[in-house]
Amino acid sequence: MKIVKPLLLIHLLASAPAFGQTLDAGGRPTAPHPNPPSAEERAKQRAQALKDLNIPGLKLRPYIPENFPIKPYPNAYDKGFVNSTSGKPTAGLTMYSKDAPDVVHKWYMDACREAKLNTVTPSEEGRKAIGKVGDLFIINADNLKQKLSIVLVRNPKDRGTIISISWALK
Hints:
Layout: H1 4-15, H2 39-52, E1 58-61, E2 76-84, E3 90-97, H3 101-114, E4 118-120, H4 124-130, E5 136-142, E6 146-154, E7 161-169
Antiparallel strand pairs: 1-2, 2-3, 3-7, 4-5, 5-6, 6-7
Protein backbone atom coordinates (compact mmCIF):
# COMPACT_ATOMS: atom_id res chain seq x y z
CA MET A 1 0.00 0.00 0.00
CA LYS A 2 2.95 2.33 0.62
CA ILE A 3 3.79 2.26 -3.10
CA VAL A 4 0.26 3.17 -4.23
CA LYS A 5 0.32 6.68 -2.74
CA PRO A 6 3.52 7.74 -4.55
CA LEU A 7 2.18 6.31 -7.83
CA LEU A 8 -1.04 8.25 -7.36
CA LEU A 9 0.99 11.41 -6.74
CA ILE A 10 3.02 10.83 -9.91
CA HIS A 11 -0.16 10.24 -11.90
CA LEU A 12 -1.72 13.42 -10.52
CA LEU A 13 1.36 15.45 -11.41
CA ALA A 14 1.48 14.05 -14.92
CA SER A 15 -2.24 14.43 -15.62
CA ALA A 16 -2.91 17.76 -13.88
CA PRO A 17 -4.95 20.18 -16.01
CA ALA A 18 -3.22 23.07 -17.66
CA PHE A 19 -3.23 26.37 -15.81
CA GLY A 20 -6.61 28.08 -16.06
CA GLN A 21 -8.50 25.02 -17.26
CA THR A 22 -11.82 24.39 -15.52
CA LEU A 23 -12.90 20.96 -14.32
CA ASP A 24 -16.35 19.44 -13.83
CA ALA A 25 -17.54 17.85 -10.56
CA GLY A 26 -15.81 14.59 -11.52
CA GLY A 27 -12.44 16.34 -12.02
CA ARG A 28 -12.56 16.08 -15.83
CA PRO A 29 -11.75 19.07 -18.06
CA THR A 30 -14.94 20.80 -19.25
CA ALA A 31 -13.32 21.62 -22.59
CA PRO A 32 -9.91 21.43 -24.21
CA HIS A 33 -7.61 24.11 -22.88
CA PRO A 34 -7.62 26.93 -25.44
CA ASN A 35 -3.85 27.31 -25.21
CA PRO A 36 -2.31 24.00 -24.06
CA PRO A 37 1.34 24.14 -23.03
CA SER A 38 3.97 22.67 -25.34
CA ALA A 39 5.78 19.44 -24.45
CA GLU A 40 8.80 21.49 -23.37
CA GLU A 41 6.66 23.74 -21.16
CA ARG A 42 4.96 20.71 -19.57
CA ALA A 43 8.40 19.20 -18.86
CA LYS A 44 9.49 22.49 -17.22
CA GLN A 45 6.27 22.59 -15.16
CA ARG A 46 6.81 18.99 -13.96
CA ALA A 47 10.45 19.70 -13.13
CA GLN A 48 9.41 22.76 -11.08
CA ALA A 49 6.67 20.78 -9.32
CA LEU A 50 9.25 18.14 -8.38
CA LYS A 51 11.49 20.85 -6.92
CA ASP A 52 8.59 22.41 -5.01
CA LEU A 53 7.40 19.14 -3.47
CA ASN A 54 9.17 18.11 -0.33
CA ILE A 55 7.71 14.88 1.01
CA PRO A 56 9.62 13.33 3.92
CA GLY A 57 10.76 9.80 3.09
CA LEU A 58 10.18 10.16 -0.67
CA LYS A 59 12.29 11.36 -3.55
CA LEU A 60 10.55 12.37 -6.76
CA ARG A 61 12.78 12.27 -9.81
CA PRO A 62 12.36 13.59 -13.36
CA TYR A 63 14.30 10.56 -14.67
CA ILE A 64 14.38 6.80 -14.20
CA PRO A 65 17.56 5.52 -12.51
CA GLU A 66 19.61 3.15 -14.62
CA ASN A 67 19.55 0.52 -11.86
CA PHE A 68 15.74 0.19 -11.90
CA PRO A 69 15.23 -3.58 -12.25
CA ILE A 70 13.12 -3.45 -15.41
CA LYS A 71 13.47 -1.27 -18.48
CA PRO A 72 10.94 1.50 -19.07
CA TYR A 73 8.67 0.92 -22.04
CA PRO A 74 10.46 2.32 -25.12
CA ASN A 75 7.45 4.18 -26.58
CA ALA A 76 6.53 5.87 -23.28
CA TYR A 77 6.24 9.56 -22.46
CA ASP A 78 5.49 11.69 -19.37
CA LYS A 79 7.57 9.41 -17.16
CA GLY A 80 7.48 9.96 -13.42
CA PHE A 81 9.58 8.16 -10.81
CA VAL A 82 9.50 8.13 -7.02
CA ASN A 83 11.48 6.14 -4.47
CA SER A 84 11.62 5.84 -0.71
CA THR A 85 14.50 7.46 1.13
CA SER A 86 13.88 5.82 4.49
CA GLY A 87 12.58 2.48 5.63
CA LYS A 88 12.27 -0.48 3.31
CA PRO A 89 13.41 0.38 -0.25
CA THR A 90 10.45 0.90 -2.60
CA ALA A 91 9.95 2.73 -5.88
CA GLY A 92 7.24 3.55 -8.35
CA LEU A 93 7.18 4.48 -12.01
CA THR A 94 4.28 5.87 -14.04
CA MET A 95 4.37 6.39 -17.80
CA TYR A 96 2.01 6.77 -20.73
CA SER A 97 2.13 5.27 -24.20
CA LYS A 98 -0.01 5.62 -27.29
CA ASP A 99 0.43 1.85 -27.82
CA ALA A 100 -2.47 -0.46 -26.91
CA PRO A 101 -2.38 -2.27 -23.53
CA ASP A 102 -1.98 -5.72 -25.12
CA VAL A 103 1.14 -4.54 -27.01
CA VAL A 104 2.65 -3.07 -23.82
CA HIS A 105 1.71 -6.25 -21.90
CA LYS A 106 3.54 -8.49 -24.37
CA TRP A 107 6.60 -6.23 -24.21
CA TYR A 108 6.66 -6.33 -20.38
CA MET A 109 6.18 -10.10 -20.28
CA ASP A 110 9.27 -10.41 -22.50
CA ALA A 111 11.15 -7.82 -20.37
CA CYS A 112 10.36 -9.80 -17.20
CA ARG A 113 11.68 -12.99 -18.79
CA GLU A 114 14.82 -11.11 -19.85
CA ALA A 115 15.27 -9.81 -16.28
CA LYS A 116 14.86 -13.40 -15.01
CA LEU A 117 11.72 -12.56 -13.04
CA ASN A 118 8.99 -15.11 -12.33
CA THR A 119 5.60 -13.82 -13.49
CA VAL A 120 2.00 -14.38 -12.47
CA THR A 121 -0.93 -12.81 -14.30
CA PRO A 122 -4.66 -12.98 -13.59
CA SER A 123 -6.70 -15.32 -15.75
CA GLU A 124 -9.09 -13.92 -18.34
CA GLU A 125 -11.97 -14.65 -15.93
CA GLY A 126 -10.18 -12.75 -13.18
CA ARG A 127 -9.59 -9.77 -15.45
CA LYS A 128 -13.26 -9.84 -16.52
CA ALA A 129 -14.23 -9.57 -12.86
CA ILE A 130 -12.21 -6.37 -12.35
CA GLY A 131 -12.31 -4.69 -15.76
CA LYS A 132 -12.70 -5.13 -19.48
CA VAL A 133 -10.47 -7.79 -20.95
CA GLY A 134 -8.06 -6.00 -23.28
CA ASP A 135 -8.23 -2.77 -21.27
CA LEU A 136 -6.50 -4.03 -18.11
CA PHE A 137 -3.41 -6.19 -17.64
CA ILE A 138 -1.63 -7.00 -14.39
CA ILE A 139 1.76 -8.66 -14.08
CA ASN A 140 3.17 -9.63 -10.70
CA ALA A 141 6.86 -10.45 -11.06
CA ASP A 142 9.52 -11.43 -8.55
CA ASN A 143 12.73 -13.23 -7.79
CA LEU A 144 14.46 -14.04 -4.49
CA LYS A 145 15.34 -10.40 -3.76
CA GLN A 146 12.62 -8.18 -5.21
CA LYS A 147 9.03 -7.95 -6.39
CA LEU A 148 7.27 -5.84 -8.99
CA SER A 149 3.67 -5.16 -9.85
CA ILE A 150 3.02 -3.88 -13.37
CA VAL A 151 -0.47 -2.51 -14.05
CA LEU A 152 -1.46 -1.54 -17.58
CA VAL A 153 -4.76 0.28 -18.14
CA ARG A 154 -6.26 1.66 -21.34
CA ASN A 155 -5.98 5.46 -21.29
CA PRO A 156 -9.46 6.87 -21.98
CA LYS A 157 -7.92 10.07 -23.41
CA ASP A 158 -6.03 8.57 -26.34
CA ARG A 159 -6.87 4.82 -26.16
CA GLY A 160 -3.20 4.15 -25.40
CA THR A 161 -1.89 2.79 -22.09
CA ILE A 162 -1.24 4.12 -18.60
CA ILE A 163 1.70 2.13 -17.20
CA SER A 164 2.26 1.89 -13.43
CA ILE A 165 5.10 -0.13 -11.95
CA SER A 166 5.61 -0.68 -8.22
CA TRP A 167 8.86 -2.18 -6.95
CA ALA A 168 10.05 -3.31 -3.52
CA LEU A 169 12.81 -5.36 -1.99
CA LYS A 170 11.56 -8.52 -0.32
